Amino acid sequence: MTRMDEADLRELIEGVRRGSVDPDAAVERLRRLPFADVGDALVDHHRTLRQGTPEAIYGPGKSAEQCVRIVGELLAHGSGPVLLTRADDDQVKAVVAAHGEAERAAGCVLWRRPEPRPDRTVLVVTAGTADTPVADEAGFTLGAYGLPVDRLHDVGVAGLHRLLAHVDRITDADAVVVVAGMEGALASVIGGLTSVPVVAVPTSVGYGAGLDGVTALLAMHASCASGITVVGIDNGFGAGSAIARMLRA
Amino acid sequence: MTRMDEADLRELIEGVRRGSVDPDAAVERLRRLPFADVGDALVDHHRTLRQGTPEAIYGPGKSAEQCVRIVGELLAHGSGPVLLTRADDDQVKAVVAAHGEAERAAGCVLWRRPEPRPDRTVLVVTAGTADTPVADEAGFTLGAYGLPVDRLHDVGVAGLHRLLAHVDRITDADAVVVVAGMEGALASVIGGLTSVPVVAVPTSVGYGAGLDGVTALLAMHASCASGITVVGIDNGFGAGSAIARMLRA
Amino acid sequence: MTRMDEADLRELIEGVRRGSVDPDAAVERLRRLPFADVGDALVDHHRTLRQGTPEAIYGPGKSAEQCVRIVGELLAHGSGPVLLTRADDDQVKAVVAAHGEAERAAGCVLWRRPEPRPDRTVLVVTAGTADTPVADEAGFTLGAYGLPVDRLHDVGVAGLHRLLAHVDRITDADAVVVVAGMEGALASVIGGLTSVPVVAVPTSVGYGAGLDGVTALLAMHASCASGITVVGIDNGFGAGSAIARMLRA
Amino acid sequence: MTRMDEADLRELIEGVRRGSVDPDAAVERLRRLPFADVGDALVDHHRTLRQGTPEAIYGPGKSAEQCVRIVGELLAHGSGPVLLTRADDDQVKAVVAAHGEAERAAGCVLWRRPEPRPDRTVLVVTAGTADTPVADEAGFTLGAYGLPVDRLHDVGVAGLHRLLAHVDRITDADAVVVVAGMEGALASVIGGLTSVPVVAVPTSVGYGAGLDGVTALLAMHASCASGITVVGIDNGFGAGSAIARMLRA
Amino acid sequence: MTRMDEADLRELIEGVRRGSVDPDAAVERLRRLPFADVGDALVDHHRTLRQGTPEAIYGPGKSAEQCVRIVGELLAHGSGPVLLTRADDDQVKAVVAAHGEAERAAGCVLWRRPEPRPDRTVLVVTAGTADTPVADEAGFTLGAYGLPVDRLHDVGVAGLHRLLAHVDRITDADAVVVVAGMEGALASVIGGLTSVPVVAVPTSVGYGAGLDGVTALLAMHASCASGITVVGIDNGFGAGSAIARMLRA
Amino acid sequence: MTRMDEADLRELIEGVRRGSVDPDAAVERLRRLPFADVGDALVDHHRTLRQGTPEAIYGPGKSAEQCVRIVGELLAHGSGPVLLTRADDDQVKAVVAAHGEAERAAGCVLWRRPEPRPDRTVLVVTAGTADTPVADEAGFTLGAYGLPVDRLHDVGVAGLHRLLAHVDRITDADAVVVVAGMEGALASVIGGLTSVPVVAVPTSVGYGAGLDGVTALLAMHASCASGITVVGIDNGFGAGSAIARMLRA
Amino acid sequence: MTRMDEADLRELIEGVRRGSVDPDAAVERLRRLPFADVGDALVDHHRTLRQGTPEAIYGPGKSAEQCVRIVGELLAHGSGPVLLTRADDDQVKAVVAAHGEAERAAGCVLWRRPEPRPDRTVLVVTAGTADTPVADEAGFTLGAYGLPVDRLHDVGVAGLHRLLAHVDRITDADAVVVVAGMEGALASVIGGLTSVPVVAVPTSVGYGAGLDGVTALLAMHASCASGITVVGIDNGFGAGSAIARMLRA
Amino acid sequence: MTRMDEADLRELIEGVRRGSVDPDAAVERLRRLPFADVGDALVDHHRTLRQGTPEAIYGPGKSAEQCVRIVGELLAHGSGPVLLTRADDDQVKAVVAAHGEAERAAGCVLWRRPEPRPDRTVLVVTAGTADTPVADEAGFTLGAYGLPVDRLHDVGVAGLHRLLAHVDRITDADAVVVVAGMEGALASVIGGLTSVPVVAVPTSVGYGAGLDGVTALLAMHASCASGITVVGIDNGFGAGSAIARMLRA
Fold it and tell me: Does the ipTM surpass 0.90?
């Protein structure tokens, strides 16, 4: 498996060896190589590392046509999962019309879902009912990476008994995504109950002093629990992707 | 017990009745009453309600001489507790030289500590060691109101076991002051464990994303626990005063 | 009155004593007890404390169906008041269709209103007409706790005479909820006029420099009146719940 | 009294009339007039308007030598008051050594204090003891404009009786400067008690939620009292200058 | 003209003198005077001062019915101008139906416009076309106080020539209202061109870095021009009221 | 070409010379010159400098009629390009009806597009698809200045290979406009790859922690790349204008 | 290995079986189990999971004596690594005096460094020289978890060539910690170059628009690179702990 | 002039041609070229572009030893100017001791000052005396690029006459750096007076509402003047570098 245009390179060198290519021309061409090809080179290299991971398209700001085209290219040029996130109704309708039915949930569309890896479980926990859409996006993303998902809903810290009733599920998971708006305290509590990776997702749920998720984001960063990490507000996709990086580590 | 200068008023009216006071002069004087005396009237009324509560002086921004004078006036004009808070070394030295030794702790000086009320206990909980000075100010203030204080230190929510080991003390208290910096999550957890008044004090403990206490303040307000209330950043005195209002209610 | 499944526990122990239960099996089952049952245990304990208080459901972010189901469970499993807050029209229509008519006001629905406690009065004060909806939510919540409510509207501090005309109602109340947007100064003034608990609710009323309630929230925390406490922006329910904690104290 | 170099202009025109100045040269010179002289023209005009007002130098960021030189120029080129504000010890020592003793207070130095205007009184009110330095700067500035100052200290709104005891002084003043940190509520209350100009000065007094004066500044702007205006944080000089503009109006 | 119920007071005193009123009853009644009547007393006093100024009602947050009722009361109980501001279409329709046609502009409705004072002119300046609505509100408010208004539009500081072409109008005015969004620099420039009162109104005009008017508000407060004052964002009414206080001073 | 009313000035001076104009009258008239005419003088001067640059009208906040009138005046009084930006549909329809078809794109309308300057190329780079509208506004503005535009889309720094594949286009450009929302990192990277002027435009693209473009604006200012400059959020027009200033330098 | 006092439990049950323990007494004791022991139970369970991880003490806000005591307890009660972070000179001196020399760097002190795990490498990358202290804290923390550290310094994105020269080290690492202040763009770039876990640490390096690290924190959250996670400002310890969670996953 | 190791490349190709290098080995080595050398390649390329520009070292966060070493390397490896900025006393002493005397001003040290370019002038304008240090840094940086500097001090917009008196210097400059704190209005005014590049530098001068330069930064971005650009707070070096990019364009 070559990373850059190895066949062309070999042909050039063979041409030099055979005398059919002038050394000066060869030097000239090769001298420009890093600038001309560095982009493709990096992408090849990069792709190697990303083997088996979904190609993701972020919907907002793209027209339905752009979505159809990009999804099409990714389906055509690879064989792995293709994931469209935060798609609106027009985008979904257009891509389904163009590329056939696919799994759908939480504003996401997924083609070629990979086999789930049987040996890993990621727990997605929410503090309140209103955090569900963000948790669904995280869960769907994890599925697109082949990671099985367990879900625990509505276990905000003001009702500690609901959380503690499920302490085994928390400590049994290989990684935990904590989805919480308002004061985001659930991340600190979960972080203290398990030693596996915990990714906190602040949500814009709440009103007033919640400041559209900024309070939760700051609170999660100021958390007294060590070793938890945070992604952006409402960024369920980011949390899923982050966990995927970790469980492959 | 009169609220305004009742003796004078009675004398005036008697003067009218006896004919020794001219009705016009009486009307003129009485007509101005609300403006001339409303201040004193309100303060009398107010004082009545505040019977037995400490008179407090906030140290910062006052010279040592001002502290000496104000403490002196309060000691002279009343018989209840007098409390100087956030006093610096110069202020403490000056007031002790002028008004004699007194109880001191947490930057506060107290004269005439009242008898503790035996039937009430206020629990002061801190999330971390660094929250102690604010908790001490709250505790000392509560003492100045005659309220017995129980203390629970260093029970941040990332180590839930330390908190739960003391769940009985939490549920037995008549009111709880929660002192927490960083993400302030402890307030939400405590609020869910007890149904008595919970006053949360955000502290400026922490760094970076803690934003000098603003994160904790916002998080406490965005809390998922219902019915907890919040005082200003590092305001241990305010928390103590607030609890005093509540336990007298 | 047992806190955990005492009957089962007793039966298990009796089984051991009688020899019908194997000691190893009993140990195995009991050893897991804290983890399996701690949740229920806490909730029982908690419930004991909360005897007589309303169960509340926060509407936003829940579907009408979710509201119907949760209200139904709470009505079925308890006998106390059940309160749905911030319900939109669809939610109200659905719950009324499912569970019968109930008291409604300020976006709240209440089943099984408790008897009012005759010996307590909570004054709900607003600074301006536009603060009324938040005050109504606070008042309705207080009613759900059985607390009688007195109301004083539109007494902003720029018209001090309107406020002072009612000073007796302020000083007669057992607790005061101050609902104010804009600069929130009313909380400081009321705090100085009474020594009972004062809970300040900043509202998002106003424009520009009011910053959607953040200015009022900060100003209430920076207040020069000692012992007042604050709840989140527009959080009338929180204020009502907080007062309920205090007046039971 | 001319605004631009009228003598020169007259001489030029007379030269044209007498034939000693070539019309083309005159046109050329006059044509450039707006660009060459607009600066001086504006300043002359401006000076006319500012007759009798103090020339002020803001100390911070200037060396002692710069202060000496600027004060010297202003003393030499005019006959009105000269005011140095926010001067540090080095600056004060240097200007006094260079220009002789002068009135000093609140970090200000004033030469040539004008006669006070007998018919006007400006009330400077503070909410707390710690606001005094800013109030002093305002008061001293007013004096430099010849405006007599009445002072009322420590009448924060949490002790309304102290404020109301002086309601006559408030309603008798021709203008009021309200100096307040913390929540700045005093401005709203004073604004409702008088119909003369009220200038509010937020101070950086307080801690935590006071946000170094930003809370007071926002609160004063969100005030429910109509027609009060605000200057910058701790800007006592600005308040004094603003009042001077108003009372000359 | 009495400030409190002088006739009643006189009758009471006369009753005492005549013996028809028992001194004890008189004392009892008078003793409560400050609390019972302080509100009315203040309002009377206040009204005296406010003689001739418009009574203003702020529309937002009030129902059309509330507007109708309040306007009606103010029209009935006084003879001065009545001004409804920020009224929406429903409110306007309702008040006009109830109280007859009135002057209308800029979302305001005015009954009983006073005679303009011929000796005063207030200049209202805008930086850009989009600031016009706020300027109109300021201008209409000034009219409600009887103050003649001159207008100067679209003279932002990036086109200094447009501003300087009207420098005479600026220096001739008795007071200036500067209405500016974006960076608000116009206030600083105008403040340096005139020595009369300058009230700056930051507007929410602009996008991005203008932060809905917060940038202009802060910039106006940080202004290098001394003695200008600032009102809240978009607060044209506040600016008009402030100028009215000043020009009566 | 005269800058001020030179003909009138010459006539006045000739009148003086001929004796038909009284010298006193001439002095009086000339003495007022700076104030009366400084505005026009500055604008003339300014116009000279701006020769050949488009006159721009910012659409928002103007009525369609105002747009029609201003465009008409600019078309009538000059011969250079006229550019209407951020026009909504009504404005576009009205100006086209009044002034004939014109080039349109990105919410802009342009009359009299100048000849492109063949020797300059400005590269407009976007980080993501959603930044396109702002980039289009920048590109259209550059065209209105006669500057040829090269475009490079969707080269966010998380896919460095896409950016590096085009490094020649970056280093070949005479100036670069970097349009990026989210974290705005593209500006720093581009700034390090070229030594020509780089103008960064933060966009409001993104959600949550992007804070509507404030994060990108701050990040671009905190950039580790030296010598890049920044314009306001979404300000494509500003970026185009800034580049025009630079390439004429 | 038992989680709770299994031996005692077994003895109690055996006592019941043998008849030496009264069933009622057993029930009574067991009934209280969840409350009495839940704390210890959780901590045991927790400890099991944390086997082999360092016990960490955060220095700030603790006295030197507190540090000595806590370190002593942790050394006495366990056999794993003990790590004191952010220790000041007094704390370091005291703990070394009490507990003997230990490894020290970056304000941290470590006792009982574990054997490094040979199969893992964590790359710690800094954007600039000034980020070194935070990177050192992260590196030292990783060492305390037995994780080998590779370091790459001063590879800010404005000099992309320095970064790309080391692209192999980036793609070879098992996880990457990116330490960057200013605009924090390095995190986005690194996130696009590798598919392993990337933890970004914003630092307070920089001035002005860097806002003490808040800009970098926000920018990292708004990053266009998917799957990177963020810890708090300057929180090198947090990053190290987070990586440890991930590489054990 | 080659960009990458052209001699080696030529030798390799010649070896292939001569048969002394195996084609497979050549292919293998060339195939890795982009990754091994891309860093150096970019830097060479970059250096070509940066010919003649100063190498700059930012002092803060570096030890004196680090400064000595980096300056030494830059002096040794190039022949162009070397500029150390924001150096503290220790750094200056150390570099001078190691590398000999050099030009110094404004906390900067410069070796090998280039010949000034006679045909360009950059005007550096300050709003107030306290902005001087930032202006000096900008001026010194411009000198390090060989750009002659004209200076205009203390021309804040509140004294427009001072600014207008120098309008010719403003319109004659080839570029303008505007250094202003407080409200930063000077940038808007200058932007309207000239059509050359204007770079605005917000400074942290001022107090209170200036928010340490954030107000000026925001105001400059919200400016009504089109085509001005902004650099970071107090970033005089950035402004100088930006102008250098522009004047070379």
Answer: no
